[in-house]
Design a protein that fits this description.
With 69 residues, this protein is an alpha+beta fold. 14% of the residues lie in helices and 20% in strands. The chain has 2 helices and 4 strands. The mean pLDDT is 75.
Length: 69
């Protein structure tokens, strides 16, 4: 739960693999924690929101999962 609600403070450094079992479909999915920033996460995007640096402890600082299997 900590990775979901406060991911930037969990894991090393907030990047960890996840294995998810979907009981409804009885399938298993895995996600690697390392990823890339969303295309919209540009310098102009953060500056428009008033940030001079990447915000700490904020969902806007999180990466997207790089791969799903």
């Amino acid at each position: 739960m900590l990775n979901v609600t406060h991911g930037e403070a969990a894991s090393f450094p907030s990047i960890a693999p996840l294995v998810l079992y979907d009981a409804a479909t009885k399938t298993v999915h895995s996600y690697i924690g390392a990823g890339k920033a969303p295309a919209a996460a540009t310098l102009a995007f953060f500056q428009a929101k008033g940030y001079k640096t990447m915000p700490d402890l904020n969902i806007l600082s999180q990466l997207l999962p790089a791969r799903r299997t």
